[in-house]
Amino acid sequence: MRVGNHCLIRCLTGFALMALGTGCTSARHGVQRLAASHLADTATSYNLAIEQTQDEMLLLNVVRAQDNYPLYLTDASKVTGTVKAEINLGLKIPLVHAGSANANDYFGMPSVDYSSSPSMDVNLLNAKDFMTGFLTPIGTQMFAYYWDQGWSAEFLLYLLVLRVDEYDQNNEPVADGTRSNYPDSHDPDLRALRQFSTWVHEQLRHGRPLLCSTEGPAVGPPLAMNDLAQLKFLVPVAKEGLSLSPAGGPPPAPQGTWVLRQSKSAFFLVPRHEDGTARCPKDIQQFGADSTASLGEASRSPRKLSVPGPGGHTYALSLRSPEGVLYYLGELARLENRAKLKRALLIHEDGSRSPMPLFVAFDRKEHGQCPAIIWVRSLDGSDYLIPRGDDEVTNVATMDDLSFASVSGLCSTGETMHALELLSQLIGLQKTAKDFQTTNTVKVVGQ
């Protein structure tokens, strides 16, 4: 009878082990599915966390610019983590004399171990290479890129142009010909900004200007290329930012002559005519002899755009640096939060007259009724938010060609997030590998 009981126990043990093995396999598949699902959710959560972190960093620095505090730019460059999931389903068999074993001596011990360990690298962007680019005005090629992408013309002119300088046909600066694009919150009439706004509306009244490019201006007189010594001299020079091209212009320019030109193209904005047409000239000479000198002088700088004006005059557009864009947004926030007349600068989308706030960042204490996309707390404890809403702007006040809306009760986001997106891209273009050599790591471990 005892021998029969042992046989029965061995059979039951075998069936139990088979059941545990099957259960273990099924449980492992379940844990793997759980881990995969959690991994997808974790990756998405990391992405959303980085989005919130970057947006809040930009808004916080806009608030610092508003308050004239030092700027501190950080970047969450990398988020890494490990997801570990283990399951153990075992059968415990006591090591005792066979004669004393019974069915209750065999029992299972399942265990599940799951852990997630994310870590994030936070970098302070203050290396020399980064700051050099951050403080340097953007190039005309970058402006041309955004213009060709179809961004609103008025949006780009307000956000990226620092000032407009007017030159006469003799390439001399025109008296009182500078138009500064900066809202002075201490000037309730905003005289400087109104002058710039009038110029913008003048350029856009017949439609979006046409962006054109030509070869860089000639360097030195035309040279004959039949001299081998000259050719040997010019070839290495051409590798240093210069290029050789046939000499243009009408006769008596001799045949077979060449000129040195700057290798970078010069960019021009050509306003449209009353019928909405505009044409890019093939050469700078086609702008007219009276404006050739001033256009050529303005095109020498890779940080300036040229716009031909009436009477042979030329407008040279100086572009902002990424830091300048940030301070410009800070001044708009100061205009909305600190000026006695609280108002938001408005722009009009291309092809319509629906005004849109260029940038909106409210003091939460005074505009807490607006739902927030993001909000931050400044050093002095004040909370600022970017509202979430598409309120139609109806209470528009106009000074000459400058449009405003009262911010009281206005929860429209307008072009705010587009402005932060463009600012984020300009900042990102300044980063190099050197910015990520030293990092501060924040590690969070959970089970």
Structure notes:
It is a single chain. This protein is an alpha+beta fold and 447 residues long. The protein has 3 domains: 2-124, no CATH class; 139-319, no CATH class; 333-419, no CATH class. The protein is built from 9 helices and 19 strands. Helix 1 (2-66) packs across helix 8 (322-337) and helix 8 packs antiparallel against helix 9 (416-428). The protein is globular. The model is unreliable at 435-447 (pLDDT under 50).
Describe the sheet with the most strands. 4 strands, antiparallel
Which parts are unreliable, with pLDDT below 50 for 5 consecutive residues or more?
A: 435-447
Cα-atom Rg, whole angstroms?
34 Å
Classify the beta-strand content into a percent band. Answer: 25-35%
Alpha plus pi helix count: 9
Number of E strands: 19
Report, as a whole number of angstroms, the end-to-end distance: 51 Å
> If you average the pLDDT, what whole number results?
76
SSE string, helix = H, strand = E?
A: HEEHHHEEHEEHEEEHEEHEEEEEEEHE
Structural class: alpha+beta
Strand ordering within the main sheet = 4-3-11-10
Number of domains: 3
Assembly type: single chain
